[in-house]
């Protein structure tokens, strides 16, 4: 997957063309944050309802599931790998927890679902970390394989909880605490925890080291395979949380509930400025990427554009964001490719 | 024997050996498990299999070229859907009303041009911005799909033209129209990749981009041509398929990119670029379709197909690594 052009560009930018102007430097470092603020101001001017607390809460709430998954994928991407299996894994955990809810009760169903999802994550982590297989193809294969597992588990049927009104299970998706919806609380809690883990612990630093330069990391005594393995476990844990929120919010689900989310999640992570080559990115940036996607969708609807226009805008924003990012790093915006 | 040539031979032949094993397995297993009376290796069944491989197959062939070039295209599914909509919708445009059946070539041309333009947009962005093709086409996948939905909302776009359907369902020399397009694409791309300057440069760029630049190859235009090529082929795939079915849903083509990549990887093309072959991809496409059909034939459910294909993909990756002599030497040093 490694795109040689961007590697050489990064090298060239570092050597003979460092960004001199302070504005360029600022854009390079905090471009995504600036874009985010500009967007918010623009939408707020266009429609007064945009900054309504209720509206903001609604946007974050609906982004929470995507956001929780994006947190885990951030770890995987920073370690220099990809995870395309999160969407289909989310379908799996949703179906499993809904099915087990009626069979063994919610108190047992939740840990059982987490255990199963972590097993899948461990399997992927083993293949990519210890066997050193290409993560794009492994997770592509697992996307298909886990979808098959989900269908086998459910027999192809939609899964529904029998007694929808009498279960405390709905608290994760529908409940509120101190006036804040529980999905937002879960998202915030996970983001804070994982943010600290990534930025302030030895494990977090190892993740950056492995993604930045795997060989150098190995030579400095970091067990690369184990770090990659753990990244996939973190990703699977986040997916399980997302599945829990999804299942609890709707208390019933199709087999394909997470289909296609893997690429949206990846879009959010990239929008947050993580490089697909690994070694850069941060949890707070991913959160901003997720929120940008959510607020764009909401803002475009509020100013009266049709729902699907957001996809076109997202496309333009992703490419502009990444282009500005690498352009500022290499000191010029046109690619050196002949 | 040169080092590595045995593994190359094994890898080249592997996909065909795999197909042979599949055929043998499903023929024998079918004797005991089959839900129908007809034999698996029935000629009509095999011809149908080729026809059904065509939509993904044509896209996968284009994906091979792009991946040999060191890039990837995730937007093919959306391009496929947009080209299909242009094809079916343009036949109803009032300006073409007086043309009768002559509207067919015009609609085909418009649909194919749509694919080329969408591919050119991707290629141009990759060339001029230097952003990784994975990101560019990931964004385009969302963007093009947005265009598809903006065109007609969530409504299907339908138009039946019986002349066109007769053409699409025709069998020339026993093979269906779609099969002819698939085989024709294999032949043309094989010639392009092996006997033209563009083909050789595509391999060179994928193998070592810096060396290609130093050798004076203009990397950008070659990449852009390849993106236009896969756009064209995604549109061709749509044109062939929707000429027959006559109705397109805005969600059609979703995940086609992943199926196409699966077929390409089964055929042994490297994600890192520089090696691979369109003929082996053709083998990969056939292998996947055989698996789908075969598992259905012995009474397995559709869910098993997903499971098996996913695991086979990972197994192929693992075996490929084990067979790769060069990789093992690197480990030793």
Q: What can you tell me about this protein's structure?
A:
The complex is a heterodimer of chains A (338) and B (333). With 338 residues, chain A is mainly alpha-helical. Chain A has one domain. Helices cover 73% and strands 2% of the residues of chain A. Chain A contains 14 helices and four strands. Chain A has helices spanning 4-15, 22-46, 53-78, 86-104, 106-130, 135-154, 171-174, 182-200, 202-212, 214-219, 224-250, 261-271, 283-302, 309-330, and strands spanning 159-160, 176-177, 180-181, 252-253. In chain A, the strands form two sheets. Chain A has a two-stranded antiparallel sheet with strand order 1-4. In chain A, strands 2-3 form a two-stranded antiparallel sheet. In chain A, a hairpin with a 2-residue loop joins strand 2 and strand 3 (180-181). In chain A, helix 3 (53-78) runs parallel beside helix 8 (182-200), helix 3 (53-78) crosses helix 9 and helix 13 (283-302) packs antiparallel against helix 14. The radius of gyration of chain A is 21 Å and the shape is globular. By secondary structure, chain B is an all-alpha fold. Chain B has a single domain (38-323), classed as ABC transporter involved in vitamin B12 uptake, BtuC (Orthogonal Bundle), CATH 1.10.3470. Chain B is 75% helix and 2% strand. Chain B contains 14 helices and four strands. Chain B has a two-stranded antiparallel ribbon with strand order 1-4. A two-stranded antiparallel sheet of chain B has the order 2-3. In chain B, helix 1 (5-33) runs parallel beside helix 12. The longest helix of chain B is centred in the N-terminal third of the chain and has 29 residues, at 5-33. Chain B starts with a helix and ends with a helix. In chain B, 50% of the residues are buried. Classes of the chains: A mainly alpha (338), B mainly alpha (333). Chain A: One of its GO terms (molecular function) is transmembrane transporter activity. Chain A: It is a multi-pass membrane protein. Chain A: Keywords: Cell inner membrane, Cell membrane, Membrane, Transmembrane, Transmembrane helix, Transport. Chain A: The chain crosses the membrane at residues 27-46, 58-78, 108-130, 136-156, 177-199, 227-245, 265-296, 308-326. Chain A: It is found in: Cell membrane. Chain B: GO terms for molecular function: transmembrane transporter activity.
